[in-house]
Amino acid sequence: MRRTLLTVAATLVLSTTLLAQRGPGAPRALGQGPNPGAALKNALGLTDAQVTAIQTLTQTEKTRVQAIMTDIRQKRQTLDALLNLASPNPADVGNAAIALHAAQSKLPPERDYFISELKKLLTGEQQQKLDTILAANGGRGLPIPGLGPGRFGFRGFRGER
After folding, report:
1. Which residue from 94, 107, 118 is spatially nearest to 4, judged by alpha carbons?
2. What residue ranges do the domains of the chain occupy?
3. What CATH number labels 2-16+37-136?
4. Could you read off the pLDDT of 130-156 as tens digits, one per residue?
5. CA-to-CA distance for 54 and 14, rounded, in angstroms?
């Protein structure tokens, strides 16, 4: 499940941040958080038009992933309810587990779709930079600043533990 959450997080956050422009311990001005748009723009050398197009793509992707996550949450609640019965029916539990797995399996293709659509907005050189960043992260998606070194996730997203 952790792998699924990492995939969702990477997909949702692609346009909001790519790389931290300073180390995790670098001081910030009062009231200023990281500027994800600037980080993405600087990391890939994006134009303002590309940033706008990526923001639109990200909003669409966020809506699509939220629908998948809602489905996953509902299926998890159903499975949990069945497991909490005094005498759960094994067939019902099995079917609920299969349905949950099927819903979770929609996330990796969604991430791949998003990355492919993103690459369509980039030049060849920018695509190479993106591929380098993705490869450096071991295929887990994009690193997200603000969560500490080596940690990945979507700020504000309350996933499973």
Report:
1. 107
2. 2-16+37-136
3. 1.20.120
4. 888 888 877 666 554 432 233 333 333
5. 9
